[in-house]
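Action item from last meeting closed. Structure (406 res):
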């Protein structure tokens, strides 16, 4: 059968643009067969002329049986479903589902807008909590945020994509704000919602597709984190149990889509749990930045070393403690240190400045070394070490700097 594919990546506020596109295809003799990932619409030749109408719904709960029966009595049957819309089909000439702009605006506010605001609020609270945690006196704020870049591939990817994410968020919010103003005016005047222009709607769809291209990257970053043990297996088991409990408690037909979404989430959690148990470290290590000194001790005379490494595709961090005994002594001394491999000069400059501050001075005879008499900051390229204690510098510092250069 002959088919035609159309990009269907409409953002939620472009409901009227999506409806207009579907009716243009219907007017040309096509009917919607299916949607693929809410990105592509597949059309087949229509045996009889049809028309389409889009209606809001709550993603957590299907419309009730009475409302669906009312639409069916009017000739409208559900053809597809997206994140916030039901797509209905009826024979051409059937009166549209909504002609009252005020009623449609109230339905959008009830079914969708409140849920969006709730999602934004939760994200805002999470970011505020992270910001407050970074102010705790456990460690400097800059070190707290570096721990995210070096400990979580998902956080590192979000940081790299931050300009794109911020720009996309501003454009999305601005477009929604514009639509809200237009819809409120139309509702006050008793008019239907206005339809966005074809060029504007196409630009919005392309931006949505661009955002969707980031999803596989974030999934890969999440898999790397799961395999590295960055996330506890307990929350994966909790997601699975929560989905099972939700499915048992919410058996009513209006929760059908929510149940399906929970089962998909549970399936994803089960896959992540399985990945966390696989011995993939030799493979995933190739995608990570190597920590400073590649596991070698700092001091040539170190008798014992305790080292903890964390790394992402963007940066790496190491923290270690070494013990050694001065020659002829019957006691042990301790050296503590941290090291970072950073992706950009400006970030390395900031970390160096935070570590050296006003207390440290350049160490005579050594390039890229600072000291305050008790510790050292060493830098080669974008690799930085911060060492507390240790034997005299001439016993180990020169060899260490050569190793960093290598």
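Sequence:
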């Amino acid at each position: 059968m002959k088919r035609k594919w159309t990009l269907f990546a409409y953002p939620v506020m472009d409901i009227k643009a999506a409806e207009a596109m579907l009716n243009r295809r219907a007017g040309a003799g096509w009917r919607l067969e299916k949607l693929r990932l809410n990105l592509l619409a597949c059309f087949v030749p229509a045996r009889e002329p049809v028309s389409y109408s889009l209606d809001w719904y709550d993603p957590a709960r299907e419309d009730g049986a009475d409302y669906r029966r009312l639409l069916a009595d009017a000739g409208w049957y559900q053809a597809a479903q997206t994140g916030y819309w039901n797509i209905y089909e009826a024979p051409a000439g059937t009166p549209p589902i909504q002609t009252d702009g005020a009623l449609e605006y109230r339905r959008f506010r009830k079914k969708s807008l409140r849920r969006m605001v709730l999602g934004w609020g939760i994200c805002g609270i999470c970011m505020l909590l992270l910001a407050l945690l970074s102010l705790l006196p456990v460690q400097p704020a800059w070190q707290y945020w570096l721990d995210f870049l070096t400990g979580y591939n998902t956080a590192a990817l979000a940081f790299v994509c931050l300009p794109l994410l911020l720009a996309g968020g501003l454009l999305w919010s601005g477009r929604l704000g514009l639509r809200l103003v237009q819809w409120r005016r139309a509702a006050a005047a008793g008019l239907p919602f206005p339809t966005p222009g074809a060029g504007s709607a196409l630009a919005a769809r392309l931006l949505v597709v661009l955002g969707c291209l980031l999803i596989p990257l974030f999934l890969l970053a999440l898999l790397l984190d799961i395999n590295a043990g960055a996330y506890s297996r307990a929350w994966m088991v909790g997601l699975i149990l929560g989905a099972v409990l939700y499915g048992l408690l919410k058996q009513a037909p209006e929760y059908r889509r929510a149940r399906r979404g929970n089962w998909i989430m549970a399936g994803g959690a089960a896959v992540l749990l399985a990945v966390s148990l696989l011995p993939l470290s030799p493979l995933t290590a190739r995608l990570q930045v190597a920590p400073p000194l590649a596991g070698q001790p700092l001091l040539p005379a170190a008798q014992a070393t305790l080292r903890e490494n964390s790394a992402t595709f963007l940066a790496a961090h190491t923290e270690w403690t070494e013990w050694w005994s001065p020659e002829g002594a019957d006691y042990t001394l301790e050296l503590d240190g941290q090291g970072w491999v950073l992706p950009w000069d400006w970030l390395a400059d900031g970390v160096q400045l935070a570590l050296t501050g006003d207390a440290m001075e350049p160490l005579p005879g050594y390039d890229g070394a600072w000291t305050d008499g008790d510790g050292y900051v060493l830098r080669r390229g974008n690799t930085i070490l911060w060492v507390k204690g240790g034997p005299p510098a001439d016993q180990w510092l020169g060899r260490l700097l050569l190793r960093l250069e290598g």
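Note appended to the action item: The domain at 292-405 is CATH 3.40.1000 (Protein Transport Mog1p; Chain A).
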